[in-house]
Amino acid sequence: MIDIQSFLPPKRKHTSSGWISFNAVCCQHNGESADKRGRGGLLIEGSNWRYHCFNCNFSTGFEIGKPVSLKTKKLLDWLGVPKVDIDWLNLESLRHKNINDIASERERTATSKISFKDYELPKDFRLINENDKDFVSYLNARGIKIDDYAFMIDPTGVNRNKNRIIVPYTNDGKIVGMTSRYLDNKTPKYINEQQQGYVFGLDLQKENWKYAIVVEGVFDAISISGCAVLHNKINDKQAQQLKQLYKEVIVVPDRDKSGLKLIEDALKYGFNVSLPDWDKSIKDVNDAVVKNGKVKTLLDIIKSKNSSSIKIKLSMKALAKQL
After folding, report:
1. Which pTM value belongs to this model?
2. pLDDT, tens digit (0-9, with 9 covering 90-100), for 278-307
3. Which end of the chain is more exposed for a tag (fewer CB within 10 A), N or C?
4. What is the pLDDT of residues 54-110, one digit of tens each?
């Protein structure tokens, strides 16, 4: 970082309160006569500092982890700091997040962690095995193996309930709900028993993963070991849980009108959005996995991630025209 003291005027005085007084360099730039009474003051607090002029009332400062403001750039220029050093300070500051701020933020979010009530699955449910041909075939057609998740069936179910794949919802290792995917081509295809604010797939995330990929549907999430909000909206509680992963969140919407709503929420919460240049026949992440495989799908998503709200909005318009 820049040693700002080395650029101060030679005549300076240290006060008991920690301020450094010197002839202010800002007055003549703000319509006042040059200061000759040591009215400029600088208070250094670790890597951060504050400046105030008691003559023309010009104030500014620097805080590591934040961009260098225009006023601070002006002050540094008036002190004789080279422009290249000012630009470097700005870049270096943005690269260094304040460790204390990060620690306190993690402490705050940890204490406000959302909890869910235990959910008891019916005792007749059992895990799918290789002998359950129809269910295995359905999963395989979606590029998913039976050991990719704890898929279950209800062998004692009647009517539609006998022909469904059950996906238990877990949070911190405990069951908190479930969804049923019916295979009889009738509607509704899915029936969810989901607690408010729940995000599917949080338990699938690994500590050393850089990204958390967020999709709409449960099978989309399972096929890439991602997270699913189970709707085309992200609510405040879901956003909070995703942020508590401390990873780069990448939202991948379905290629339909509901997906546009998911993009709007991603922008609202400051998440990345990815709209890979996939074939028009691909409507969601699971379609991409079936056609291109898991590895290529993940690479496409990461390569296409975007954090620029302007670029994301332009992509939204382009997607809307295709629908």
Report:
1. 0.67
2. 999 999 999 999 999 999 999 999 999 999
3. C
4. 989 899 999 888 889 999 999 999 999 999 899 888 888 877 655 455 555 555 555
> CA–CA separation, 275 vs 114, rounded Å?
30
Q: Residue 35: what pLDDT?
A: 93
Helix and strand element counts for the chain (H, E): 10, 15
Mean pLDDT of the chain: 91
Measured CA to CA, the distance from residue 242 to residue 306 in angstroms comes to 17
Q: At 222, which amino acid appears?
A: I
Distance, CA of 94 to CA of 81 (rounded, Å)? 19
* Distance, CA of 271 to CA of 305 (rounded, Å): 10
Residue 124: helix, strand or coil by DSSP? Answer: coil
The tokens for 296 are 């290529």
* Structural domains of the chain ordered from first start: 4-96 (no CATH), 118-190 (no CATH), 197-323 (3.40.1360.10)
First-residue to last-residue Cα distance in the chain: 51
As beta bridge partners, residue 169 has: 177
* Residue among 266, 243, 279, 249 nearest 316 (CA): 266
Give the closest residue to 5 by CA, choosing from 36, 52, 43. Answer: 43
DSSP 8-state secondary structure symbol assigned to residue 10: S
- Which conformational region is residue 122 in: left (phi greater than 0), alpha (psi within -120 to 50 degrees), or beta? beta
Tokens of 156: 């004692």
CB burial of residue 274 (10 Å; 0-12, 13-18, 19+): buried
